[in-house]
User: What shape does this take?
Amino acid sequence: MTVKPIVLQDLPADLERERLPRHVAVIMDGNGRWAKLQGLPRMMGHRRGVDALKDLLRCCKDWGIEALTAYAFSTENWSRPLQEVDFLMTLFERMLGRELREMVQENVQIQFAGNLKALPRSLQGAIAESVAATQNNRGIRFTVAMNYSGRQEILQATRAIAHQVQQGLIQPDEIDEAVFERHLYTAGVCDPDLLIRTSGEMRISNFLLWQMAYAEIYITETLWPDFDRAEFHRALCAYQQRERRFGRV
Assistant: This one.
């Protein structure tokens, strides 16, 4: 007899809705290791990782979380074997094509963070199409970090503001956090309350360096393809046990 896993559709009773994080960010680590443990090619781990991300997005939507940001591809990932990089680019493009209609129907607003101009032209087209098709949706805000670097994001924001100062559009003493944040890739999205990293790695890996200033960090040994709703439930329980003082006593 096969026991089917329990699917947590509704918010679990031991979670307080008013204390849920508004914005969850995830570093999806461990796809390659998961595939190796299964005796499969690394590419199959990435494919299974996409399924895990889709389920997490729907879970956030079901449980009332406003925003989800996923670290899909960093600027450092270009150093991976060419075959793997090409596979990932094709996988991202196909995923957008397959899932776009459902994201529109489920009121998901998708956006992207990173230097998109360096991506393959066909993928840039799929990204532009998905952003345009969901821009008026008012459900969960789903941000995909693609060709992303936290340091580069801060540098490009600094350059943009410097150009405005040079043109006399803004004075140096008018530059505050609000001005700076308007020039980030994530402008208009609240900062993450919770960062989840899978596979046990204890790093933030150049991800949302400005935005992560007061995020609670949750590390799990679970590899990303095995990260399901039960694992997310555990992460949220740990989050709700934290006391968030933001520097206050």
About this structure: Residues 20-150+191-240 form a domain with the Undecaprenyl pyrophosphate synthetase fold (CATH 3.40.1180.10). Residues 1-6 have pLDDT under 50 and may be disordered.
